[in-house]
Predict the 3D structure of the following.
Amino acid sequence: MLIDNQLVAYVVLALVVALVVSFLTTPVVKTFAYKVGAIDVPKDARRMHKVPIPRLGGLAIFIGFMVSILLFASITSEMKSILLGAVIIVVLGVVDDIMALPAMLKFVVQIVAASIPATHGVQILAFSNPNIFSDDLYWVLGWLSIPFTVIWIVAITNAVNLIDGLDGLANGVSAISATTMLVIALVGNQTQVAIVLAALVGACVGFMPYNMNPAKMFMGDTGATFLGFILATMSIQGLFKYYAVISFVVPFLILGLPIFDTAFAFIRRIAHGQSPMHADRSHIHHRLIDMGLNQKQAVATLYVISAILGLSAVVLTTGGEQKAMVLFAALCIVAVVAARVVFPKEVTKELTEELHEEIEGLKEHVQHKEEKKGEEP
């Protein structure tokens, strides 16, 4: 399928403008973060950094994105609703990065923000039936389309936020996911979607030099929730609408890493009798660190997984005789890596050895006490 050269030119311009603005704005935002006290202090075991680091970097990403959108994108009613929702998400994130807000308040505001595009045409109307044995090819949502759309947007918004635990992780994974959607949009000549995603990729890449390990600045909830919100809404505009036949699979492939991490975290917490929103140190990136990888290695591993999933999505949408084999092989690789993360042999072995040493020590202690007791008159 031929790609329109004019579309490519607009996409490149949108990407470059967002990149440059994001890169140049970050130092200014960093100074602002120090002034308002938006500093991430390492106060628990979940945080990987050792010194206080300013956050609010997501504000630079947002500014770079908005400048590019206003210059190159068509501001339709649907686009206005997406941007309005994004502004609400960013304002919420800025306030939360300065002063921690209650989780329930953030959740309610996110629902409000997601409801704006969901009630203005950005809706998941139908998707392919995952039951291959059913005679119905599609599930038409009808009146459920709005609540289903809101759930999807809020879920992805928080999923991206939850993987923001290592330097450059959420930013890089979001850039990879956005690039995957951008390629699919270019192949389908989806002008509006392609320009928006190009702006998102450029904004992420522009912030990357400040966010890679060792990070000089974090994106904070401002950036992570904003990226999740845009990825969620654009997946609806570019995937659920244009690729109805495979719409159940493609978004889950592209956003597979944050979706898997969030789902696993919720299941784990519920199984342990905890609240699903309870913060812990058992996310995928934490497990990779516990396996002995350093931050750069852990982030690179998750980049590879995200890229494999993205490649699978591109192959699936563009077609070809080899698509099933490539998809199957890619998913097998991801499954093996995921299994190693969820059930790390190295950690299990270390814990077993430590437990064995403790048992042996306890036996020796009991034996010593019995011998001492036997010596007493």
Observations:
- DSSP finds 14 helices and four strands in the chain.
- Strands lie at 39-40, 53-54, 126-128, 138-140.
- The longest strand covers residues 126-128.
- The mean pLDDT is 79.
